[in-house]
Write a structure and sequence with these properties.
This protein has helices at 7-27, 33-49, 54-67, 69-88, 90-101, 107-122, 125-142, 147-164, 169-177, 182-212, 217-230, 239-249, 254-272, 277-286, 295-300, 306-328, 331-341, 346-364, 369-384, 389-401, 411-420, 424-427, 432-447, 455-464, and strands spanning 288-289, 302-303. The protein is mainly alpha-helical. It has a two-stranded antiparallel ribbon.
Length: 468
């Protein structure tokens, strides 16, 4: 007897989750952890009554949580590094020089472009947002640009490279699960990504002009004066972020690179800011909380430390426990199979792939599952329609990679929200590349634009034994 939940029961679980999030987060303005825990309990009870054993559910929960252990370690390292960067004067120095060099008129497109170049070079969206992104946030705040708008530009740029860089883990994963050459995969993604990037740049340009009208030069000059009075500002401090970026470019793993950046900054904190070793250790744990009497400084230079990321880690654990239950009870499989059953055209297939990836980003809280699971579910459908699998790999990244930071409980959204101090729901409207790219992918599907077919698809069809 099949003990997996039926489509109707799976839909009931999802509706309960959406209701919990809406009431708890939107109406009551609570953190999402408890609504997610309540939804997890509801799904467990329903599964147990349906015949699924607790051991099966527990195994799925543990397996899912184990998969995000590297992300947890990354978060802890990032928290420690951010605390030392703030305390040592690294971030204040970046804000000081950045606000002098970057014009307020073109700040938003510049931030988007800088993050795009960095993420393309490193293949790392988290590293980009957690380093240059944090600095750009401070610069933008000094110009009076709302933090959700700045965060949106940073997220768009950070995920531009995460999607397109041949050294990005999601790029490698999407091409691998679809058995597509990675260079062909990257080239084919340009068809949807470049138009999205151009549109995003134009929108950021005009948004930047809107906020530049309200920039007060006196306020920026006052910020410069306060930074110099509060910290020792030196271009030598810029060696810290440069060193971290170079380590990431040189393929040193992110966690050792971040820890190296934290140690480097800790030494500079003692040299340039006169901090004691005990103060540096305290900052690594509890972060920085300024009380200078200058509101602008106290708002800009705050955060970091282990405590700073614990909220995010608790959210990730809650979300991944729910994801484990959804997977173990058959909810995700039932929903995706139902979607696949209503596909009638190429446009429908692209739409189904996009919707499934977005759904899995929300339901499983993990972008890797939002790539792997649809690839497994839809691969044969693409082959049957004689569609080259690089269309599938491209679509998985258009939706799976790019929408992952738009949900607060997704590991990517939780990390980015924690690093920048802005809720994903707040920056979502301004993360233009991230929501525009899936829309363009759907338009391409129904307009039959850049939908490759031909020999390669036919060969794949024969290899998997699908009849024409």
């Amino acid at each position: 007897m099949d003990n997996k939940l039926s489509f109707n029961k799976s839909l009931l679980v999802l509706l309960f989750l959406l209701l919990s999030i809406f009431v708890g987060v939107i109406m009551w303005e609570q953190d999402p952890q408890i609504p997610i825990v309540i939804s997890t309990i509801f799904a467990i009870v329903l599964s147990l009554f349906n015949g699924t054993s607790w051991d099966e559910l527990e195994e799925s929960i543990v397996k899912t949580i184990n998969s995000i252990t590297p992300s947890i370690v990354f978060l802890l390292a990032m928290g420690i590094m951010l605390g030392t960067w703030l305390h040592s004067g690294v971030v204040p120095t970046i804000i000081y020089y950045g606000s002098r060099l970057i014009s307020p008129n073109i700040f938003l497109p510049t931030a988007f472009l800088l993050c795009s170049i960095t993420s393309l070079t490193t293949g790392d969206s988290w590293g980009t947002a957690g380093t240059i992104g944090i600095a750009l946030l401070g610069i933008g705040m000094s110009f009076g640009v709302p933090t959700p708008v700045i965060a949106g530009a940073i997220v768009s740029g950070s995920y531009f490279g995460d999607k397109l860089s041949p050294i990005s883990d999601t790029t490698v994963l999407a091409s691998g699960v679809c058995e597509v050459d990675i260079i062909d995969h990257v080239k084919y993604m340009l068809f949807t990504t470049v138009p999205s990037m151009i549109i995003a740049m134009i929108i950021y340009f005009f948004l930047g002009l809107k906020y530049a009208k309200h920039v007060e030069v006196e306020q920026i000059l006052e910020l410069h004066r306060l930074l110099v009075e509060t910290f020792t500002i030196s271009p030598i401090l810029l060696l810290v972020p440069v060193a971290v970026l170079l380590m990431i470019v040189k393929k040193i793993k992110a966690v050792p690179a971040l820890i190296g950046g934290a140690v480097f900054a800790a030494v500079f904190a003692m040299i340039f800011q006169g901090a004691s070793l005990s103060e540096v250790v305290e900052v690594m744990h509890y972060g920085v909380e300024m009380d200078t009497g200058y509101e602008l400084i106290d708002e800009l230079i705050v955060g970091g430390g282990l405590d700073y990321v614990m909220w995010t880690i608790s959210l990730i654990f809650c979300a991944m426990a729910l994801a484990g239950v959804l997977d173990g009870s058959g909810v995700t499989e039932a929903i995706v199979n139902k979607i696949l059953g209503i596909v009638r055209s190429t446009g429908d297939l692209i739409l189904a792939t996009v919707v499934s990836s977005i759904f899995l980003n929300a339901a499983t809280a993990d972008q890797y599952l939002a790539i792997i699971f649809p690839a497994r579910m839809f691969k044969d459908a693409y082959v049957e329609r004689n569609i080259d699998l690089k269309v599938l790999s491209r679509t998985l990244e258009d939706a799976g990679t790019l929408t992952s930071p738009l949900f607060p409980w997704n590991t990517c959204g939780a990390f980015i929200g924690s690093a920048l101090g802005v809720s994903p729901f707040a920056y979502l409207p301004y993360a233009i590349l991230n929501w525009l790219n899936p829309i363009i992918a759907i338009i391409y599907g129904y307009a039959n634009l850049n939908i490759a077919t031909g020999d390669k698809a036919s060969e794949t069809k024969e290899a998997v034994g699908v009849e024409g």
